[in-house]
Structures are given as C-alpha cells and as structure tokens.
C-alpha cells in the first residue's frame, strides 16, 4: 500500500515509473518477437529438409497460404467473431454465477455444508464430459457453448470467492456491526473489498479455463467458430488449415491476456498495492 502512496504523491516518481515501463515492455516485446521469428525459421527449414508431404508437416508458407484463403473467403473473420462473442458472454455469465454462489458459501456456513459436497462433486466432472449431454438436450449451437463456458468459469470464481470471504478478518466485521452497519453494508463495504484479490484471482483463472473450454465446446457442440474450423480441417485432411486455426487460438489468447486480463489486474489489485507485478 505504501508503494501506491509514494507514486501518487510524487509526480516525478510517476514519470520515472513511466519511463521505466516503456523500455522494459519494448525490450520484452522484441525478445518475444525474436523467439517467434526464430521458431518460424526453424520450422521452415525443417519442413523443407524433411521431404515429407505437406499433409503430414506443412511449412509456414503452406500455413500462410491457408490463412490467405480463409481470410479471402470470409471464413476466418466470421469464426473468430463467433468465438470471441461466445467467450465474452460465457465469462460474464460464469463470473456472475460463481460470484453469487461464492459469496453465499463464504458468508453462510449452512449453505457451505449443504452445497459444498455437491459442488465439489460437480467440479470433478470436466466440461468436456457434459457437452455430449448438452448436445442431446439442446442440440448444437450457442446454448450448449454458453452453458459449458459458464460451468468452466463458475467454479474457479466460486471457490476463490468463498475462500477469500472466509479469510476476512472477523474483527473488521465486528467493528462495523458495532457501529450499526446493516448486513448489506457489512457485505458490500467490508467483506467484498477484503475478498477482492481472491475474487479477481478466481476470475482470471476462470477466464483462462474458459478459452480452452471454448475450443473444446466448439469442436463438439457447434457448427462454426475456431474450434469447429480446426476439427473440420483435420477431418478433411487440410493440415495447413488446422495449424492456421491453432495459431489463431494462441494469438487470440495472447491478445485477450495482454489487452483484457492484464489491464484489468493493473487497474485493480496491482494499482491498489494488493499484489505486485511479478514481471517487473
């Protein structure tokens, strides 16, 4: 907390931190780009020297050609847009469900005793096992994907929230109650702020699981999206398209992590001094 006070109190400290931030991130980006370019170069050399069919081992040139075809035909933009829309909706629903249940289990011991064993049982069943059942119930489409992603996201948020709520110092709750605070005020002004680092950690873990779950769900329960593109390309022996889809998956996750999740952490728990950025 003292670090945040020092930076906000001194303008020069903020400037110095900004001056350090840019070179550090530029250097990190250049190192990352060097690694990627080096891997592509090795991949091209290995594909050229292997002498095997592009079906077994497509080169970066083959994959780039597949990218061009998918973009030119409008397939890839539509699939990416569908996948991102499902991802954001699933993360939102899963966070809402997990946060609600986590607060209930953290605040109420009775709820924890009643629901705890059932939730632990369900947590052990991965979402991939549920998707064929969901397809039987609802058919292929958006509902199956959203239910699967909600299932994936809810549990990390739920358990992290419940644990963080139970870890709230009892003395804080007793003090505000002694001052006349209502149950709602205790929850919103003491318990939730104290549990916020745990809640955000659960959200970040759930968001990561959701992206993997999205690809699985689209392979089984959808007829479009990046996961479906990967599956159908492999089934049609278009290995170059399959690898193009895999690269899209990795790229999308990097963009989500860098443009969505990390900024969210930066403006919340890192800014408040509750955690320190380990990449510094």
Number of helical runs?
11
Low-confidence stretches: 1-18
Distance between the termini: 17 Å
Please provide the count of β strands. 0
- The percent of residues in helical segments reads over 70%
CATH class descriptor of the largest domain: Mainly Alpha
Q: Largest beta sheet, briefly?
A: none
CATH topology heading of the largest domain = MetI-like fold
pLDDT average, as an integer?
82
Rg computed from alpha carbons, rounded to a whole number of angstroms: 23 Å
- Overall geometry comes to elongated
Proportion of strand residues: under 5%
How would you describe this structure in keywords?
disordered N terminus, 280 residues, mainly alpha
What does this structure look like?
This protein is mostly helical. It has 2 domains: 51 residues; 208 residues, MetI-like (MetI-like fold), CATH 1.10.3720.10. The protein is built from 11 helices and no strands. The longest helix is centred in the first third of the chain and has 40 residues. The N terminus is likely disordered.
């Amino acid at each position: 907390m003292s670090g945040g006070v020092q930076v906000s109190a001194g303008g020069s400290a903020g400037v110095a931190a900004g001056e350090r931030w840019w070179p550090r991130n530029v250097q990190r980006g250049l190192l990352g780009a060097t690694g990627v370019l080096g891997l592509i170069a090795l991949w091209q050399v290995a594909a050229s020297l292997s002498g095997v069919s592009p079906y077994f081992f497509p080169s970066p040139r083959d994959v780039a050609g597949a990218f061009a075809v998918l973009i030119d035909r409008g397939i890839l933009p539509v699939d990416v847009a569908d996948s991102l829309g499902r991802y954001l909706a699933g993360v939102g629903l899963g966070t809402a469900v997990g946060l609600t249940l986590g607060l209930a289990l953290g605040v109420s011991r009775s709820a924890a005793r009643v629901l705890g064993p059932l939730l632990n049982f369900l947590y052990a069943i991965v979402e991939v096992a549920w998707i064929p059942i969901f397809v039987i119930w609802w058919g292929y489409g958006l509902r199956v994907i959203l239910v699967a992603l909600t299932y994936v996201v809810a549990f990390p948020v739920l358990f992290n929230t419940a644990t963080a709520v139970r870890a709230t110092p009892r003395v804080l709750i007793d003090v505000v109650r002694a001052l006349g605070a209502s149950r709602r005020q205790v929850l919103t002004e003491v318990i939730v702020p104290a549990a916020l680092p745990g809640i955000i950690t659960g959200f970040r873990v759930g968001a990561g699981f959701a992206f993997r779950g999205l690809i699985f769900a689209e392979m089984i329960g959808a007829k479009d999206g990046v996961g479906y593109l990967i599956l159908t390309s492999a089934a049609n022996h278009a290995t170059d398209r399959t690898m193009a889809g895999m690269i899209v998956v990795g790229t999308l996750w990097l963009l989500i992590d860098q443009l969505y999740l990390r900024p969210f952490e930066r403006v919340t728990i890192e800014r408040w001094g509750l955690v320190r950025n380990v990449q510094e």
